[in-house]
TrEMBL record:
PANTHER family: ALPHA-KETOGLUTARATE-DEPENDENT SULFONATE DIOXYGENASE. Its EC number is 1.14.11.17. SUPFAM superfamilies: Clavaminate synthase-like (SSF51197). GO terms for molecular function: taurine dioxygenase activity. InterPro entries: AtsK-like, TauD-like_sf, TauD/TfdA-like. This is Taurine dioxygenase. It is an enzyme of class 1 (oxidoreductase). Residues 10-251 form the TauD/TfdA-like domain. It comes from the Bacteria. Belongs to the TfdA dioxygenase family. It comes from Rhodococcoides corynebacterioides. Keywords: Dioxygenase, Iron, Metal-binding, Oxidoreductase.
Amino acid sequence: MMRHTTLEPVGALVEDVRVEDLDAAGIAETRRLAAEHGVVVFRGQTLDDARFTEFLRAFGDIVFTEGETPVPGHPDLNVISNVGRTTTPRSTFHVDTSYVAQPPAYTSLRAVTVPSEGGQTVFSNQYRAWDTLPDDLRDELVDRTLTHVVTGLDLADDAESSAVHPLVATHPISGRRSLYLSTPARCASISGMSPDETAETVRFLYDHSTAEDNVHRHTWQPGDVVLWDNRCVMHRADHSGVVGDRVMHRGMATDGHARS
């Protein structure tokens, strides 16, 4: 068993483990921790982009979001950076690339440059979001689907731009149910609901999911590698009050284990 400290209300902190040394059993344990806790924080890592890519490939096929900026020399990874920007980046709670039929199960960030202040990443517990809904609302939502659409990216004409997913998803590893939604602009329609009903329901579920008592704020340290399971968390970057450069390299992967 991988020793960890539980982070409330979502996440697990793992120390004294080198990501590049994880064998098949270690990757399986990381999958289990991510399925149970949503987010796995590995502290004190020294891996480079090549080894970071190998780490991601251990989980399944790598997914790259069309329209993002790739890391030079590592086209499977993309850069998230505030360097050289004249306006503050914006981020709302969301699930990565949910507008495709097979969204990435896992997203991971490697800290390249950590600002001296600010720049946290905030995660919501979508298991708890589902569990704490009123029973009558859960009964109403359990069999519905949600159409996710792309926003903010310039895609090719033949690229996927919308997909239908269960609004209430059962995790293939943990067996637990969670609310699977994204930022409201990407939530186009809920099955069996009018546009007004969809907008009202999505806003309620989004606010409920991202309430302060249902989120964990991760403060980045040099050497951090953080992996999360998109099937049971939403996330956003908090760009308010950032002092200094904030540079992250991001990779995403399917769940090859669940697929097999």
